[in-house]
Each structure stands twice: as C-alpha cells, then as structure tokens.
Amino acid sequence: MRHALFLHRSSLAALLLALCACAQADTSAPLRVQLPAAATASAAGRLLLFAEPAAQALAKAKDGNVLEVNASPFGGADDASMAAMDIARLAPGQSLAVDTDTLAWPTSFSKLADGEYYVQAVLDVAGDDNYGGRGADDILSAPVKVTLGKAATPTTLVLDQRLPAAGDPWQLPPRFSEAIRKAAPAAKAATREIDFISPALSAFWGRPIHMHGWVVLPPGYDGAAPARYPVLYFTHGFGGNQRGLIGTAVNAYTGMQSGELPPMIWVLLDESSATGTHEFADSVNNGPWGQALTEELIPHLESTYRMDGKASGRFLNGHSSGGWATLWLQVRYPKLFGGTWSTSPDSSVFDDFCGIDLYAANANVYRKPDGSPYPIMRDKGKVQASFEQFARMEETTGPIGGQLASFEWVFSPRGTDGRPTPMFDRGTGKVDPQVVAYWGAHYDIGRILRTQWPQLEPDLDGKLHLYVGTADTFYLDGAAYKLKAVLDGLGAKSDFRFVPGRTHFDLYVEGSDRQALMKDIAWQMYAIARPGAKRPARKPTGKLAAHAE
Question: Which residues constitute the signal peptide according to the record (predicted)?
C-alpha cells in the first residue's frame, strides 16, 4: 500500500525529543537497555523491544542461530511481540528500564505466556523504522534468550551494534537471480541518477528539497543522434525508495536488450520521504509534489534527454501506492500524459477504503456496524490482520512513516499542531467526518471524475487503464469496481481488468515470468507512441498473474 516530510535526521530527532520525556529507571523491571560505556556520544530515539517464543524463533532460525527478532503486520500468530517507548537521552554506560506494557503490540508483555523468549532491542534514532524498517541509523542489541513471566530474571540488553551503511545500490543482494546480478553492470552503464533540487518544494520547506530517481536509457541511445523515445514514468509502492528501484532498472534494460520490452526511456521516480509515500500529490502537509514533478522535473528531463516531449509519448505506471500516484497524476494532469496503467492502486474512492465506507454515518475503521472487526489483509481467503491490529502495530512502531499515517500526510488538512489531522481516532477507530469530507473534496478520484468529467473528458477519455486481482491482499479490488462504475456511468472509455484469484503480490506474473504484465503494458504504451509498431512474437507461459518491484 502506500511520506513526504523530507526531514533531515536531526529534525526527526528533535521531533522525538519534543514528543517524549526521559525514561525513568525502575529497578524492578525485568528488561533493561544500556548504551555501552565506550560509546562516544549519547543516543535518543524510539526504543523498540521485540520478544518471540524461543521455540518459535529457533524453528525459523538458520542453523539454530537466532540472528534477529522482528515483528510485521504480515506475521500473524507466528510473529514476535513488540513494545516501545521514547528515550530522550541515553548516556554512555547508562541503563534504563524498558516499559513493556504501556505501548505494546499485539499485547503487553505482562500478558505473554510464561516461558523462554528471544528478545532484541532496537533504538530507532531517525524515527524511520515505520517506513523502511531497520537501517543504518539504528542501534541494536544482540538477540538474547530470556525467561519472561513469574520466573523472569533481570536482563540488560546492550545496544552495541550499528547496522552498516547500505553501500553501493548496484551491488545486488542474493535474493536477486544470478542472471539479474550479472546484468546489473550493463544496466548501470545505461542508467543516470536523478538528483534534482525542486524550487517549489524548497520554497515550501524553506530548505533545499531533492527529487530522486533513475533514468534508464535504451540500448543504442545516442544523445547526439536525432532519434527520440517515448517515456515510461514509473513509481514504486509503500516501503520503496530510490535504492529499491535498482531491480526495476535492471529488468527494464535487460528487457529492452532482449526485445521483450520496446525501446523507451524509463524514468523511475522515488516517492518516499520521512512520513511515507507522498504520491506526487500537492498537499498542505507534504508540499507541492505534483507541481514539482510536472512543472519542474519533467521539463528538466526533457531538456536533458531525447524524449518525445508530448503527451502521446509520456506514460505512467505504478503499483499499490505507486498505482494511486499514477492514477492521480493522469486525472490531475490529463493533457500532460498519454495514459496511465495503474496496478492494484490504493483506494481511489473513499466509500471503499480497503472495504470501509468512510462517508457512512458513525463510520468506524475498527468495527463494522455489527461489532465485528474490519479486516485489512488476507491471503488465500484467510484474514491475516484486522484494521485495528494494523493501526495499533503502526502506532507502536512510531508516529511517523507508517502506511495509515502516510495517507493522512497526503490527504488530511493540517491541524493546529502543524501535523496532519488524523482521519480516525487510534484508540476507538471512530472516523472524523470533517477530515473525511476534506479527503473527499480534494483526493477522492471517483468524486473528482463525477463532478469534473465535462472538463476532463476531452483530454482524459480512454487514458485510464487499471489492473487488480480479485483476491487483492488489501481488499483494493472493491474500490476499483466502484471507480469503474463511476466511469461507466459517465459513458467514459476505460480499460479495467480484474484478474481472477490474483493478490497484491502476484499480479504481474505469468508462469515463470515475473514481469509478464509489465511487458504487456509497455507494448500497449509503445503502440500509442509509435502506431504500427509490432510486438515480437512471444512464447505463452501460462495464465496472467504478478508483482511489480
């Protein structure tokens, strides 16, 4: 699913200091954390403590060596528990008791079954674990086996490990296939980094704001030659960033090399920031990201590279939060782009927000009118997590960067405290109808289409393409059906494809080809930019399915 406060780490640390009070020592607490006496400076941030039953952790460990204890909303019953507290200052050699009950997920540690657990502490210095997970800014302890419950013995977790810097993004990890890793050097040679300072965003924030990404040039590209190329603007989903786009860059270049993808320039856009994904939407909280892209970055790119430079050669594609972003950009700037192929987009209508009607009287995102919980994730027909579980875990991890908070940074009005006004109460799940009204007036794509179609139709009709699985992991197919109904009711031309049984993560796959849908989409784009172009014959590989990086 799906940040945009581009804060420096020092700013985030200052925010944490403002939000928290210094932890008080409690000699009776069974778990404590300590910064080594040899540390060169004090530390501050969000302390996250993870606990997992020892037998469970060992069963998942390689060679019986527990290297990490972590939690995820995808983990379900087989995941670790988590507790959190803010630390204003931890001095070298200082030890602090950990509060494992006030802020915990899915339950306070005092309610865990008696027994042996592996525990690990993580000090999130930059406040960004809610978005990107553990990173080089974090200070960790080693996982330690302890006894919790009635027989608990005091244990001190020493924060003596710093994760290494990420290093060269082109040095692909083993999770990538050997073929992709071998192809990376050639793709790197054809790829140019985007590091563009936006005047509009810099004016909004009062400091230089950079836009990041990659430009992948097709094989044979010659900047001095007269040939021009259509452009595919791609952006990632929630949790992605510039580094994570490297795999997409390699796939794009190798696909063009083999002829499986048409010769195009790929612009891979990073839509991550400190608070989540900014969706390239102009926002009172995040700033004018849409303006920055369309009025600043795209003209800069078109003056630098041999791009078509017209709507019939500018196309959009994104998955999940990237799918919402590209759908939004096409609707918001219909004259600029020649079509969007948005896959599994975040909810485009707010009367079906992951299956919840936010406009309903007395709406509540935690509970249905009959009191049963709203699900937010499923797999093979089985509910993986409820909306409340997801929200409470996000709240435990931190106030910035989570998926639900990210929506508020994009869609919500600004509150009196300078932060986005919450769409719902984190304690009760009650929806704020005034905030939802603001969401609807400014960002409900279905509502915008209904109210503005006479003005939009000449430049937008036939440009909206949407793909989603009927078993989407986050129930996003519901909003897609409603958006299609809006367009059908307007008599609009559109291309909506609901792929039977596919989830959020297997939409692009066909047989063994994990990029099959992307190839189909790229050739559809190319046929618009280059009428009469013929796609090479391809071997059938099975039924359509897949996942975009």
Answer: 1-25
d(C-alpha 398, C-alpha 83), whole Å: 11
Q: How many helices (H) and strands (E) does the chain have?
A: 15, 24
What is the helix (H) or strand (E) element at residue 250, kind and residue range? helix 246-258
Residue 452: CA atoms inside 13 Å, Cβ hemisphere, count? 16
Rounded Cα gap, residues 462 and 191, in angstroms? 32
- Domain-located, residue 524: yes
Q: CA of 208: how far to CAs of 201, 300, 410, in Å?
A: 8, 17, 20
Domain that holds residue 258: 178-349+445-529
Q: Could you tell me the two tokens for 27? A: 């000699």
DSSP code of residue 294? I
pLDDT digits (tens, 9 = 90+) for 287-315: 999 999 999 999 999 999 999 999 999 99
Distance CA 541, CA 337 (A): 32
68 with 108, same domain?
A: yes
Q: Which residues sit opposite 191 in a β-bridge?
A: 216
Asked if 452 and 337 sit in the same domain, the reply is yes
Specify whether 148 is located in the same domain as 276. Answer: no
pTM, entire model: 0.91
Instruction: Report pLDDT digits (tens) over 332-367.
Output: 999 999 999 999 999 999 999 999 999 999 999 999
Instruction: Report CA-CA distances (Å) from 179 to 108, 184, 250, 522, 526.
Output: 46, 9, 10, 22, 26
* Cβ–Cβ < 8 Å for 503, 532: no
Residue 454 and residue 433 in one domain: no
Residue 233: phi and psi, rounded to 5, are -90, 115
SS3 134: coil
